Amino acid sequence: MIKHLPLTKKKANLSLSTLIIRIFLICFFFLSLYIVSGQNSEKGYTAKEITAYYDKIKKEGNEASNVEVIKKLIVQSKKINDIPGEIKGLAILQVVAFNNNDYILSGKYSEELEALALQTGDYYSLSLTYTLRGTVSSILDKYPEAEADFDKAIEYGEKIPDLTSKHMQLSRIYANKAGMSEGLDNNNKIIENIKKSLELIETIPISHLSPSQKETYYYLYITALTNVSATYLHAYNPPHVKLAEPYIKKALSFERITPYYFKANETGVYFSVSDFYAKKGDYQQAINYATKLLRTKEVQENPRERMLAYKVTKDAYAAAKDAKNENIYLKLYTDLNDSINTAEKKTIVQQSRNQIERSTKEKNKYKQKTLLIVSITILLILIAAWSYITKKNQDYHKKYEALITKIKNEKDANTPLELNDQNIKSSSINITDKTIRVLLLKLEKFEQSEKYLQKDISLTSLANRLHTNTRYLSEIIKTYRNKNFTDYINGLRINYIVHQLYHEPKYRQYKISSLSEECGFTSYNAFVNAFKKMNDVTPYYFIEQLKQHETA
């Protein structure tokens, strides 16, 4: 949901999961303001000359291709005791390592930067590096560590002497905290942090800002606008499209008003605009902006950004029912997602190894003993990990088996309630027993008729069909089916398709999108989510298990 890069994160969901990680990457743009030139650095530059190279490379945006040059400039800064120059260089390397998914190396540069910044009281750099640490922890699902890092970033941010810089940095942190809260599915915290981020940036008067401050200001302001829009679209069900619209249109207006400053944020805006139009139902516009998103420089150069761009494009084509293009971008997304997940898993393992190595150096006299402990620890971790994964898979399969048992015990897809005097329940509204009986009988006939498979079914249309009012019908469904209307209809549809898959093998060859249409869903994602909610397993897993048992 929040402008991240999805994070989602490792998951292919563009809702409060799916849109998992874009806001997590906000800080990288600002850390990348510390960039150096690609010119030869063999000679001894002064601190002023080194700073000039940072400013030059900032405009060129070639930090990734100048890593070796930056390292040489850091060495030169050490020689002349230019601590600010060292900090700037380390900040660049930290960002480049992050963008390459090398979180271990990024953390190493962050630790070196922190030690130098503490010496000089550089609270701005300290706040920035802790913001990026929090981002990395969020991506790796280490949420307690992420929250601690963001709180530390706020602590240092409050100490920044310049009010404008302080508000910009704090706005950035709260935006990233919103992304972390999204990973925790904490809607209240998402909204609280998003609004705080926007309020902070709106307090800054633009008239006295320097050119570099304007770049930061517009980036943060546009980001805050798209994040508020995303909150309205994803933190509420149904989405508040009308409330989101003014924010997303204001963000997009900067493409015309200030194209120079908009350029730095075009990836995030196109991402959000495509998502907005998809929620609004204007699928062609969603595809148009998804296509623009794929052409941006950031998407082309950053694997994580590119992964989420593929997902946005895939979802836009899916909504427009263009299966051919949907499948093209689904494959691109899946392949890249698998690659990134592999890199992240290696990062977690490598982090543990580095901690062990540091411990070994500190206790050099007990090296052999330490190595033995480390070996045992690694073995236990592997055993624990294997046990956890095995148990998780077993638990998941038990849910599948429970579903199969339930199907076998049911005569029909939707078995009606046997009505007698004992199971007439009290209602919150005044409905006579006779009316209840009549409505329940009509409801049972409806359930057996499979008319719930019609895509345009609604509470009003069903009430008209049963010759009653929506209030009575809603209350009957709530009291005797223990569901609201949406869950009730979804439950009938899912139960229908589950029985079809179980009893009719031909359905197992259908695509998930075809199955969703077969049972009356208008949205691929709505079908998958409803299936998982009702049966505790995904349709993919259910079908694969049925196929395995079919060939066994």
From TrEMBL:
Keywords: DNA-binding, Membrane, Transcription, Transcription regulation, Transmembrane, Transmembrane helix. It holds the Pfam family HTH_18. The chain crosses the membrane at residues 12-36, 370-389. The keyword Transmembrane helix applies. Residues 450-545 form the HTH araC/xylS-type domain. One of its GO terms (molecular function) is sequence-specific DNA binding. InterPro entries: Homeodomain-like_sf, HTH_AraC, TPR-like_helical_dom_sf, TPR_rpt. PANTHER family: ARAC-FAMILY TRANSCRIPTIONAL REGULATOR. This is Helix-turn-helix transcriptional regulator. It comes from Empedobacter brevis.
